[in-house]
Each structure stands twice: as structure tokens, then as C-alpha cells.
Amino acid sequence: MGRNCSQFFTGAVLGIAFAIPGVVFGQSPPPRGLDAYVERALRDWRVPGAAIAVVRNDSVVFIKGYGVRELGKSAPVDAHTVFGIASTSKAFTAAALAMLVDSARLSWDDKVTKFLPWFQIAGPYVTREVTVRDLLTHRTGLPRGDRLWYASGFDRTEVLHRVRFLEPRWSFRARYSYQNIMFITAGQVVGAASGSTWDDFVRARIFTPLGMMNSSTSISALAGQTDVAMPHQIIHDTVRVIRWRNMDNLGGAGAINSSAWDLAQWLRLQLGHGVYNGTRLLSDSVMDEMHTPQMVIRMSKDAHAMFPDTHFMAYGLAWSLRDYHGRKMDGHGGVIDGMRTEIGLIPELHLGVVVLANLDETDFPTAMLYRVLDAYMGAPPRDWSTLMLAAAKKAQATDDSTRRAFEAARVPNTHPSLPLDKYAATYQDSLYGSIVVSDSAGRLVVSFGPSFTGDAEHWHFDTFKVTWRDPALGDTWITFTLDARGEVASLHLQDVGDFPKLSHGDTAP
Q1: Residue 306 Cα distances to 88, 301, 391, angstroms
Q2: 292-303 pLDDT, tens per residue?
Q3: Is the per-residue pLDDT at 235 higher than 70?
Q4: Residue 140, exposed/middle/buried by CB under 10 A (0-12, 13-18, 19+)?
Q5: Is the pTM of this model over 0.85?
Q6: pLDDT of 459 above 70
Q7: What value does the mean pLDDT take over residues 52-64?
Q8: Where are the domains of the chain?
Q9: Secondary-structure class of domain 420-500 per CATH
Q10: Helix ranges restricted to H, 195-309
Q11: What residues contact 291, with CB distance under 8 A and at least 6 apart?
Q12: What fold is seen in the domain 2-398?
């Protein structure tokens, strides 16, 4: 099916692409064996559909869709199929801020409170000193805290108001630690400094000049589009279609939707060092700053084993930086529910690649990125898909072993300390909001925000396993803590933290 879809796609996209004024398009046959390699990798990784674009010397030299937009349906992925691009959105936010630097509306080292006076993070010193540059380099010392925005129902402003309760894990500017909420903040700075919004600024100053006609910053924009990939997830070892989750509150950290064709124009801007179709959109100065190392990233042993000829890794302003085959490589990946994206640039060779896929938690896009880069760099071919699939299976085996050990530690024949109705209450955390536990016909039901509703099954003692009703959310464990009077005092949500029980008369902050 993949080959037939690709043949259909090629004829269709050529007609569309040449009709776009000002677009440089020099489609050439793919490197020998690439089509067969991609199609085999799609099957091996169980990815329903993908799109790949290659830019070289300011031309789109290769662009192609593979597979289908939705499992079980025949509509093929093509160059204009829209995917969620997740964290590769971050570079758009950095570019928006760079344009404001160029127009002297802000500087990289301006304090965030200059634009968002109400903004606070833990500690008055860090709140006072944190700069725009800090937001873009993952060095505030904060852990991820992603449950604050993920399916929480909080809008961007509420997320930023609550981040003051996120406790730092490291010292300010001491180390690199990936942090989405600071990029949401960066997007809000774009709006405040420009007198607009992040969404409108990115649309007017980036999407429109680049002719990115199918790109958007909100799930609501997908309603009128037909060429849209559906997200997929592996649930209980079966690839399933899941719904598009509303990620609008992720804003400047990951809310952009785009296509291979549109992102090829974005690559042309980056490889053109701020120039697109003869028009300069970003100065040399800000382009250099975004693509210059700002924070060192320590390589793990696994990364060294996979990339033995890589000598350094660093982070610029929304770009990951490293060496590859003796050349500087700039890139970024992104994952949201049911989607994964990888972008890689070799600036010295004026070469860029983007890979989009409609399955999350898969290294298929990464493997395809390096396979395509190798082909166009003239490097010795390496079977990246097989290597990364083996690594993924090894990691999955470790995860499965850990889970089995956890489940084996379950103590049989125990009972809750209290009748179930005594656990029913509202539990409140200043950072994450409320968890509501209710007793429904002798069974506990747990609700966390607008998306997480699950059924709790007794595990052991005062711990319960919660199976979320949205299968894409999986399951988790909650543990109740009793006070000296034998009454419920708090609830601990696995991988999130403790939620004190609200007493009668208490109100949520």
C-alpha cells in the first residue's frame, strides 16, 4: 500500500508545488533504495503514515508522503498533510523573539518581568533575574511539571500563574533540564512585547511570509482542513487511532500544526541564515545567536554508543546542537499524543531534513532523519532503523521488567483501612489543581482535571490502581495517607505528588 500511495502522491504534489509562486522546487529521484527502506521501516515500527522533505541549496529536492493518514482508511499522506509538530514549535518561538530583538522591542537578556510583571517562579531571586535567554535554554532549575499543562484544562495564563508553586530541582543556571513551561512563558513574552499574541505574531511574521498556508497554532484551525493526519498510539500492543488532544495551552512550547511542505520552507529560512526568497526576515546576528551553543548537554552512555563519532552536544536558543560526520548539526524533535517530528540541519552543506509521523513514542522519525542525512551527505550507509529498533526493544524490555517487579511486590489479601466512602473527597494541590474521588456504587472513581477520569481498583493496603477511561492515558496508582486520628489526610498520585485533602469549609486556591 505504501508504494501505491507514494506514486499517487508524487504526481499530485508536483502539480501543486509548481503552482506556488516564488517556491524553489527541484524534485529529484530519492536516493537509491530509500523508498523501500522507508516503507520497510514503517512496517517494522508499525507507523501508519509519514512524510519526509529534504532541502538542499535553497531547493526542495525531495518531498514525499508514505502510508496513510488514518489506520484502516485509504487516504494517503502527502506533502500537505498536517501533523502536530510538538516541540519543534520551540524554534518558531525563538525566531519570533529574534524578530523582536531585531526591531529593538526586547533583548535576549531582558528580564521576563519587564514584559510579564506578574510572572513568578519559586524564589524571589530567580523571579527577579530570569531572562528571555534563560527561558529558551532550559536552565531555570525547574523540573518539567508537565501535568500542569497536559490535559489540565488550564489556559496559558493559568499555567504561568501556577508555575510559582513548582519547586526547583537544581540551582538557577547550573544545568540543562528540559522545560516546556518556560517556552509557554516565552510565547507569552512574544505577545506582550509585540502588543499582539504569540499565535498572531507567528502567523503574520513567519507563516505568511514563508507561504506556510496549512500551518496553525490551534487545534481549532484543523476543523476546516481535510488533509490532516490522525494521531495513533500503541495501546496494549495494538496500534490504535486516538483523538487529537487540545494542546492550545502548550503555546510557544509545542502547539504548532504543520506539513512537510510548509516545514520545508521553514528549513529554507534556517539554511538561508534568515533570508527567504531573497527577503531577509531575520538578521545575521540573531540567527547566529539562536544557533550558537548556550548550554552543555551531557551525553549518556547509550547516546555515545549509538553515535560514537559525536564529540559534543549543546543547546542553543531552541535548537539542539552537535557534530555529525565532522559537521555541525542543528536539530530538534517533538512528541505529542499520537505524533512525532524530527528536524535536522547541516548548515555547512545547506542541507535540511524533516520527518513527520502519526505515531508517538517511536524512533522511526529519528532513524529516517539520519538515514536521509547520510544519503545526502555521502556518508557510509548505516541501518539506523534496525539499530534504533533494537535499542527501543531493549528499553521496552527494561520497562516491562520494572513493571513486573512492581506488580510482583503487591501484597495479597490486604484490605483498605477504611470503608470506601471515607476516601471520597476533594484533594487539592496549589500547582496541579484538584483530584476528586467519589464513591460510585461501592467503587471509587477518580477525576483529575477535565480529561482524566478513571476507575480505581484496590491494589493493596491504601493503594489503588486507577485505569483512566481514555485508553490513551493508560493507568496509574494512588495512595491515601491517614492522619493520627485514622482519617484520610492526603492522596499521593504516582509520578505527580501529594494532594492534601480539603477539609470542610476549605476552598481551592
Answers
A1: 22, 9, 9
A2: 999 999 998 888
A3: yes
A4: buried
A5: yes
A6: yes
A7: 97
A8: 2-398, 420-500
A9: mainly beta
A10: 198-202, 208-210, 260-271, 284-290, 301-306
A11: 316, 317, 319, 321, 330, 347
A12: Beta-lactamase (3.40.710)
